[in-house]
Amino acid sequence: KKKSILSAYYRRQGEFSRWCESRQVALQETKVHHILTFLQEDLIKGLSLSSLKVQAATLGTIKGELEGFPIGCHLHVINFFKVVRLIKPPFRLVLPQWDLNLVFNALIRPTFEHLTEIHDQTLILHTIPGLTYLVVFGIVLTDSWSSG
């Protein structure tokens, strides 16, 4: 995995270890209610559902299975995520954000430069590739028409 992902995992593992120590719970003896309390505190801090799911996956790398299930597959954790989705649904913009001033400025600007304002060298550099494309396309079209 990428270094940034691994460092985030290690950071979260450290936070959970400190959280367990502050509650005098041995890391390997944590139960589902400890995991849910930890996730609940992150929810209160403002983490989104997807971030909480990443947290659960991170905790799974520490704890492994929880009462015979991977943490994300434990019934209580699944129900926790369902409730989180209900009380804090994912926010998606229906329309893309855009800047009205930018649009208006683009609309009032002249669309094209006048040919008399363009330097000859610039005009040649931009015209030749287009002409080359037209010539090649014409040859291919003519060739396919004459052979068909």
Structure description:
The protein has 148 residues and is mainly alpha-helical. The chain folds into 2 domains: 3-87; 100-147, no CATH class. 66% of the residues lie in helices and 3% in strands. It has helices at residues 3-22, 32-44, 49-63, 75-87, 100-108, 120-147, and strands spanning 65-66, 69-70. Strands 1-2 form a two-stranded antiparallel sheet. A hairpin with a 2-residue loop joins strand 1 and strand 2. Helix 2 (32-44) runs antiparallel to helix 3 and helix 2 (32-44) runs parallel beside helix 4 (75-87). It is elongated and about 80 Å long. Keywords: Membrane, Transmembrane, Transmembrane helix.
Brief sketch in words of this structure:
The protein has 148 residues and is mainly alpha-helical.
Architecture blueprint of SSEs:
Elements: H1 3-22, H2 32-44, H3 49-63, E1 65-66, E2 69-70, H4 75-87, H5 100-108, H6 120-147
Antiparallel strand pairs: 1-2
Helix pairs in contact: 1-3, 2-3, 2-4
